[in-house]
Amino acid sequence: AQSVTQLGSHVSVSEGALVLLRCNYSSSVPPYLFWYVQYPNQGLQLLLKYTTGATLVKGINGFEAEFKKSETSFHLTKPSAHMSDAAEYFCAVSSNTNAGKSTFGDGTTLTVKP
Amino acid sequence: DTGVSQDPRHKITKRGQNVTFRCDPISEHNRLYWYRQTLGQGPEFLTYFQNEAQLEKSRLLSDRFSAERPKGSFSTLEIQRTEQGDSAMYLCASRAWENTEAFFGQGTRLTVV
Are residues A104 and B4, on separate chains, in Cβ contact within 8 Å? Predict the structure, then answer.
């Protein structure tokens, strides 16, 4: 069984400030981990993923995340927030036996203040 | 546009009516997934197909729900006798066997009144 916990349903930062969105997962098998972004009434867009190998992964739009097995975490960061980053972000976990079947967290809404 | 396509984007229906949604995956993606997303929640897995075979169904998929993928191309999701609790965004995703992630469509938002 797999599960995802996103700490903080709402995060607010100022434009130019560091973005940190937290994700902890539980998985009985080696996990694949994903971060998606969703804009209102839109589908999900993949920001980045971890499957194997390097634990620090870089994604689109300046986002990156670090897989920490000992902490079962996969937190998403961006050094400098932009107004266009305001959206909902979802962390998800799957396995290598069926990578498309994911368990999602409940999401974190990111607000960026001017 | 070669992404995952879903139709319709929005559907309003009266309680008790049947509705059907369509998903066209990315060409040559043999795996297709359906998810449901309610307000304030993350997507929840409903079912998935490998080619035309439906290989797994979630307990969320009650007997009022049925999904098909004839010929392993597009897929349909039908909800019979809709209830207000069925109001949600229904997302479709597809994946090629060698990919490690699925690609999502824009979703169909269902409102049952």
Answer: no
- Interface probe with B: pick from A2, A60, A98, A103, most Cβ of B within 10 Å: A98
Dihedral sign (CA A105, A106, A107, A113): negative
Cα three-residue angle A61-A23-A105, rounded to 5 degrees: 95
Instruction: Give the tens place of pLDDT for each residue, B11-65.
Output: 999 999 999 999 999 998 999 999 999 998 999 999 999 999 999 999 988 899 9
Which tokens sit at B37?
């997303």
Q: Residue A62 and residue A76: Cα distance in Å, rounded?
A: 11
**Euclidean distance between CA atoms B7 and A99, whole angstroms:** 25
Q: How far is CA B36 from the centre of its chain?
A: 7
